């Protein structure tokens, strides 16, 4: 049965119960009303019989008066008959009210017969009494004893009958009163118990409907929660044949289908996993073979690379030497010029002293002696200058001296600037501000080569002729507790952006053939990185260029052990 049908049933039962309760109460009230009417009718009948009984004495008195007044006594029974009929009519009326609605029964017929008998007996007695009185002598008045005799006759014939009927009616009245009491008692209990009974019945019905509904709903909720948690092994246990039963069956079916599809999926996943494991094992084996093969190939390639590396290293060494040679070559003219000057006046002075000494025969005069001493002193100074130039050249002429140690940056910069002087002299002022920084961990010859290259490049970036307007400035500072940064800044032409990322490439040059090899900066980069340092450039075309060289501060270096450019 559907929930809607159950609810309709419930409502119908409740309505029927209410209707039955209303009808029952109406019937009981109606029944009580009827019993009360019967009670009143019976009482009226008893009263009527009482009044009929009481008619005897007035009748006898009227009869006596009529006899005494010599009037016609036959009118007295007629009067009584009228009174009796009037009373009988009331009696019939109350009797009709008593039995209103009831079926015509033998009992009622008997009562009517009693009425008729009482009336007949009463009328018979009245006519008998009137005849007796009429038969008396006209001048004889009715003595009290006659009245008593007539009344006694009345009592025997009519009064007794009336009394009997009255007793019956009283008995009926008492019975009816008892019945009424019982009815009232029953009505009270029915009015009390029937609603309670109906309420209980309605509650039972509601529980009979709601309890299975509740248990079905609980089963559904429990099943839904378990399905929500991924447990598809559920059964709702909803056995009712209503919508919830249908829903429960649908949920059971859904859970079963989900479980089956999950199992199918797991089975497929397992199969897929096994297949992928097999595939992975196959790939693994294949990979191992490939790796093994590639490792062998790599080993061979490694060997080839190592050979190439060795070749490269030797090529780089050659390049380094080539660059150094190029630098020396570039400097050769300047150095030759530098040496040529002092050599010229050394030779000239020596020739002068030689000539003077050759011509001198006696003791030289003081003036001649002073002049020769001055010439020798000048020659000695020129020789000293040559020595210094040679000493500077030694910085570049020690290709195998790669020992690392504390290096005084200021001294190396000073030496490199001197060697590059021939190139810078006509182009820019060289300003050195490298004092006060701690020695760096480097090789003086290599570092000197770096600065020489940077000075020559800076000089080449500045057109000759306006030396006072341009500047090549070298600043050294402690950029970190264990780092020294040297900045070589010039006011030259600068480097275009498209060249900036290529200037450290070997053989990259913008200079004409014979002027540049394109090796200078690549060698600088190699030397600085080999020293554990860093070299980078910033340039603004038309404004100038700045190279930053960062080197580690030498550990535990002292002034004594510091390498110098000298
Ligand atoms: P080279 O000097 O033989 O050309 P380098 O490697 O020393 O080789 O320099 C590469 C190029 O970098 C130079 O040709 C030049 O164009 C550019 N360059 C280097 N230093 C400077 C600088 N200070 N100002 C402008 N250009 C520079």
Write the layout of secondary structure elements.
Elements: H1 3-54, H2 56-68, H3 75-98, H4 106-135, H5 144-228, H6 243-359, H7 366-396, E1 405-407, H8 409-419, H9 421-424, E2 429-433, E3 440-442, H10 444-460, E4 471-480, E5 483-490, H11 497-500, H12 520-530, E6 534-540, E7 544-552
Parallel strand pairs: 2-4
Antiparallel strand pairs: 1-3, 4-5, 5-7, 6-7
The protein binds adenosine-5'-diphosphate.
Can you put this structure into words, describing what you see?
It is a single chain. With 566 residues, the chain is α+β, with helices and mostly antiparallel strands. Among the domains are: 37-186; 403-566, Histidine kinase-like ATPase, C-terminal domain (Heat Shock Protein 90). Helix content is 70%, strand content 8%. The chain has helices at residues 3-54, 56-68, 75-98, 106-135, 144-228, 243-359, 366-396, 409-419, 421-424, 444-460, 497-500, 520-530, and strands at 405-407, 429-433, 440-442, 471-480, 483-490, 534-540, 544-552. Strands 2-4-5-7-6 form a 5-stranded mixed beta sheet. A two-stranded antiparallel sheet has the order 1-3. The protein is rod-shaped and about 250 Å long. The protein starts with a helix and ends in a 14-residue tail after the last strand. The model has no long low-confidence stretch (mean pLDDT 84). It binds adenosine-5'-diphosphate. Adenosine-5'-diphosphate binds next to α10 and α12.
């Amino acid at each position: 049965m559907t929930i809607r049908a159950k609810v309709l049933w419930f409502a119908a039962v409740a309505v029927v119960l209410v209707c039955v309760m209303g009808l029952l109460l109406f019937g009981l009230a109606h029944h009580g009303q009827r019993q009360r009417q019967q009670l009143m009718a019976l009482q009226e009948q008893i009263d009527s019989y009482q009044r009929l009984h009481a008619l005897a004495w007035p009748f006898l008195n009227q009869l006596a008066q009529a006899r005494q007044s010599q009037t016609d006594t036959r009118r007295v029974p007629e009067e009584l008959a009228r009174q009796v009929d009037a009373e009988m009519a009331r009696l019939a009326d109350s009797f009709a009210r008593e039995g209103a609605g009831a079926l015509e029964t033998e009992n009622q017929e008997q009562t009517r017969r009693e009425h008729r008998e009482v009336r007949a007996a009463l009328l018979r007695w009245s006519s008998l009494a009137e005849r007796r009185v009429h038969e008396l002598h006209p001048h004889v008045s009715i003595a009290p004893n006659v009245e008593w005799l007539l009344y006694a006759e009345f009592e025997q014939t009519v009064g007794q009958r009336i009394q009997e009927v009255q007793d019956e009616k009283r008995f009926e009245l008492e019975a009816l009163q008892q019945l009424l009491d019982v009815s009232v008692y029953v009505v009270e209990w029915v009015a009390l118990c029937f609603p309670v009974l109906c309420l209980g019945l309605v509650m039972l019905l509601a529980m009979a409907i709601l309890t299975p509904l509740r248990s079905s709903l609980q089963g559904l909720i429990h099943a839904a929660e378990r399905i929500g948690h991924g447990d598809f092994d559920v059964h709702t246990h909803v056995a009712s044949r209503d919508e919830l039963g249908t829903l429960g069956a649908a949920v059971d079916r859904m859970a079963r289908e989900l479980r089956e599809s999950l199992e199918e999926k797991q089975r497929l996943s397992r199969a897929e996993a096994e297949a992928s494991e097999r595939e992975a094992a196959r790939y693994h084996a294949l990979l191992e073979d490939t790796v093994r093969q590639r490792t062998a190939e790599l080993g061979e390639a490694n060997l080839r690379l190592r050979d190439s590396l060795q070749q490269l290293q030797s090529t780089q060494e050659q390049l380094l030497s080539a660059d150094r040679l190029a630098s020396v070559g570039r400097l050769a003219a300047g150095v030759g010029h530098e040496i040529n000057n002092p050599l010229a006046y050394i030779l000239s002075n020596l020739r002068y002293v030689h000539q003077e000494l050759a011509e001198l025969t006696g003791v030289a005069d003081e003036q001649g002696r002073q002049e020769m001493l001055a010439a020798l002193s000048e020659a000695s100074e020129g020789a000293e200058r040559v020595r210094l130039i040679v000493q500077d050249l030694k910085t570049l002429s020690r290709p195998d001296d790669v020992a690392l140690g504390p290096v005084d940056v200021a001294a190396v910069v000073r030496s490199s600037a001197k060697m590059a002087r021939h190139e810078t002299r006509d182009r820019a002022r060289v300003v050195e501000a490298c004092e006060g920084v701690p020695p760096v961990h480097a090789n003086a010859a290599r570092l000197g080569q770096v600065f020489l290259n940077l000075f020559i490049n800076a000089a080449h970036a500045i057109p000759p002729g306006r030396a006072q307007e341009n500047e090549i400035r070298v600043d050294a500072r402690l950029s970190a507790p264990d780092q020294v940064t040297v900045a070589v800044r010039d006011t030259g032409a600068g480097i275009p952006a498209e060249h900036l990322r290529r200037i450290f490439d070997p053989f990259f040059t913008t200079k004409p053939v014979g002027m540049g090899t394109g090796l200078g900066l690549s060698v600088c980069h190699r030397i600085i990185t080999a020293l554990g340092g860093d070299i980078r450039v910033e340039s603004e075309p038309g404004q100038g260029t700045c190279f930053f060289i960062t080197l580690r501060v030498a550990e535990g270096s002292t002034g004594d052990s510091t390498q110098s450019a000298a």
